[in-house]
Every structure is written in C-alpha cells, then in structure tokens.
Amino acid sequence: MQFKNVDEIVTKYAKYVVQQSKSNLTKDKKGGGDLYNSVSYKIEKSQDDFLLEFLMEDYGPFVDKGVKGKTSTYPETSAALSRFQYGSGTGPKGGLTKGINSWLKKKRFQFRDKQGRFMSYESMTYLIARSIYNKGLKANLFFTKPFEAGLKRLPDDLIKGFALDIEDGIILGTK
User: Fold this and answer.
1) How far apart are CA 134 and CA 96, in angstroms?
2) What is the pTM of this model?
3) Residue 128: exposed, middle, or buried by beta-carbon count in 10 A (0-12, 13-18, 19+)?
4) What are the pLDDT digits (tens) for 18-32?
5) Where in the chain are the domains?
6) In whole numbers, what is the pLDDT of the chain averaged over residues?
7) Residues 35 and 56 sit within 8 Å (Cβ to Cβ)
C-alpha cells in the first residue's frame, strides 16, 4: 500500500522546517552563509517505513543551542541550557579561530588600536576567539523553534493523511 497523503504531509513538514530555519538565520543576520545554504532535508522511503533527516553544517547545532563559555556561562541566556561547553570536549573543536579569521577577512573587518592603526586579522581573531571561548555563544534556536512548532501540528495531520490513504486503498482495492 502506498501512503501518498502521509508522504505529502511529511514532505510539507520538512519544507516548513527548512524554510523557517533559513528565515530565522536571515533575521539574525546569519543568512546567506554556509550554514544558511546547508540547511536541507532528506527523506528515505522503504516498503514499511520512512526516515526524515535534517541536514546542516557541522557547527549548526552549536549556533542553534548555544555554547557555554569556559569561565562565564551566562546563566541569564539560553546558552546555559546547552549541553555544549568550551573546554569540556563537547563544544566546537578547533574551527573557532579558523572560522573567525576567514569571516573577518571575508567581511574585511578590522579593529583599530589606541593609536588608530588597524589591527592584524590574527590579533583580532585571537581577541574574538578568546572572548567567545570564555563567555560562550548565546543560543538563537533558528532550527529548534520551527522544528517544534511544526511537530505540534504533525500528529493530527498524519492521522488525517493516514486515514485518507487507508480510504484510498480500500476504494482502489475494491475496483
């Protein structure tokens, strides 16, 4: 038996989560980058079941859930709720300085020192990385919010879709 209506509902849910996640990244001025472009979904179907998988860059969960800092976890922010923490082995590994350095160069952004001279990208990378390492990253829930919002509607929609598929199967089976 084919579950055409259930397939449509799952696909609609996946498209909603991806679209809303990308929209949230754009609102937070993180849109247009590698993370934005990588958010997608994949549905694998077999005779008896299906698997819905959401895909994104490896650092996507850290942006979504936040990362606690080594010395200051910001209890007033949602980063305190994250299971990730710098210095514990559960935070981003090694890519922090490389990512910051490439971002600074891409944006052609430079601080000035007290004498008004531009700082090197390496110096700025060190200062920013040290601050993030100690203070952490606040969660923005760009993926979690649409995932959970869509999930609230999904059970009712799936029941309706499944009922329609059963009905279609009975009607087609009697002809």
Assistant:
1) 13
2) 0.74
3) middle
4) 999 999 998 866 556
5) 1-65+140-164, 67-139
6) 80
7) yes
